[in-house]
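### Sample
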Amino acid sequence: MKILHTTDNGKVIEFLKKNHANKEQVELTGATIWSVAVEDNRVVGVSGVNLGKYADRVKGFFVVNDMRKNGVGAALLQDALKQTRAPRVTAFCTRNSENLFLKQGFIVTREANKYGISFVEWRRES
C-alpha cells in the first residue's frame, strides 16, 4: 500500500460520495491536504487535514469496507498527523473509528452524541 497526497478536494469528495461515506457520517467537504491510501492502483481510503492557527483538524477519514481492519486506517491517521503543524489536533470520529484514534494517542473530550459521533483531541509533545 502507498500513501499519496493531494489538494484536489473535488476528486476526494467524488471518491467519498461514490463509496457512500456520507451514510457513515463522514463529512463531505474539502481539506487543506489529503492523505490517500492506494492498493493495487485502487484508492482504498482517505484522510484530510485542515491546518489552523491554534489547532489542526483531521476530517473526511474513510476506508472502504473490504480494506478495514488491515492497517489502512492506522497508516492514514499516522500520515495525517505528520501533515499537521499546530500543537493540538482535533477530530470528530464514529464509534467504528474511535478506538483507532485512541490507539494513536487521541483522547475523547466529548462523548458520542446520539449519532455515535465523538470529539477527540491529540496534543503534540513539546
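The mean pLDDT is 93. This sample (GNAT family N-acetyltransferase) is used throughout the tutorial notebook.
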